[in-house]
Design brief:
Layout (H helix, E strand, L loop, with lengths): L2 H5 L1 H5 L4 H32 L4 E3 H11 L4 H10 L3 E3 L7 E4 L11 H9 L4 E2 L1 H7 L10 E6 L6 E3 L2 E7 L8 E6 L2 E6 L1 H10 L7 H10 L5 H9 L4 H13 L1 H4 L3 H5 L10 E2 L7 E3 L4 E3 L7
Parallel strand pairs: 4-9, 5-7, 10-12
Antiparallel strand pairs: 1-3, 2-3, 6-7, 8-9, 11-12
Helix pairs in contact: 3-4, 4-5, 7-8, 8-10, 10-11
């Protein structure tokens, strides 16, 4: 023992031994490795999120667990602090917009947003279906329509509203799945969409938009429209759909005898094509038809 050790025990005790140095080095290497993995995992999580426009807190928690070892609550807080996620104003609780630093909380794809809240099984109809078929005059809507089994209040979501419409047909009648964006979407088929739009033009951005769609629709199976409209049990709607199918019979390849099958379903007294509007009485369909009805 040196002379200094009699008086400097505390200082000498702090001097690391060779074994301690090796252990400290190993600890530092492990820490750097963990930090590297953490950063890589975090970047992978952000990349996964950036594939979406909108996401629920439940889905964020699932992805955080998949890509990192942090708790869902911590991950959600950090993502908000870093500006990756932003709360959706005027929207359901627990819904976040994936921000790209440019659009803020602007929802790029409202269809995906609705699916994020109500699930991918949700069915779009009316004017929203016309939009998805490329038949609408509008590129973006203020109201998005969902087919519902019962009446429900509309729901605001950011700069648009979700409207739930109870329809006369069973919910699963005439439903198809189409590719949309990065996934798929369930919508009413083209024939049911056109009937629903004729039935309730106000849910399809007005009659002018419906006429626009009718004039541009391709591949319509008019015979299917005839079979569908019989199930609505609404005589005035049968008159309107009959008039429409007859007008496009050649284009839609509908036989005269198929059109005639609608006669027993017509109203007993003359109906109006649109509420509050008159027009010339078409005796064949027992329907008052306004002038320029199919102009768009």
């Amino acid at each position: 023992m040196s002379a200094n050790c009699d008086f400097c025990t505390c200082r000498c005790a702090k001097v690391a031994q060779p074994g301690q140095l090796r252990e400290a080095e190993r600890h530092a290497v492990k820490k750097r490795s963990r930090n590297g993995r953490s950063k890589t995992a975090w970047k992978a999580l952000v990349r996964a999120l950036r594939k979406r426009d909108i996401i629920s807190s439940t889905e964020v928690a699932r992805l955080a667990k998949q890509y990192t070892d942090v708790s869902p609550d911590y991950g959600l807080r950090r993502l908000q602090q870093k500006g990756v996620l932003q709360r959706l104003k005027n929207g359901p609780r627990g819904l976040y917009v994936v921000a790209d630093g440019k659009n803020g909380t602007f929802i790029t794809d409202p269809i995906e947003a609705v699916q994020a809240v109500y699930g991918e099984e949700v069915v779009f109809g009316y004017g929203t279906a016309l939009l998805l078929y490329g038949l609408s005059r509008y590129g973006r809507l203020t109201e998005y329509y969902v087919v519902s089994k019962s009446k429900r209040k509309q729901r605001p979501m950011g700069e648009f509203n979700i409207r739930f419409v109870k329809t006369p047909l069973p919910k699963e009648t005439g439903i198809v799945t189409r590719h949309h964006g990065r996934g798929s979407v369930r919508i009413t088929d083209l024939e049911r969409t056109l009937i629903d739009a004729i039935h309730r033009p106000k849910y399809a951005q007005g009659w002018e938009n419906v006429a626009h769609a009718l004039n541009r629709a391709e591949g319509v199976r008019g015979s299917r429209m005839i079979e569908y409209v019989k199930q609505y049990r609404t005589p005035s709607l049968v008159s309107r759909v009959g008039l429409v199918v007859q007008r496009y019979a050649e284009k839609w390849k509908v036989a005269e005898n198929e059109i005639d099958s609608l006669r027993p379903y017509l109203p007993k007294t003359p109906a109006k094509f649109a509420r509050g509007e008159g027009g010339t009485l078409n005796r064949q369909w027992n329907l008052h038809v306004p002038e320029g009805l199919f102009d768009d």
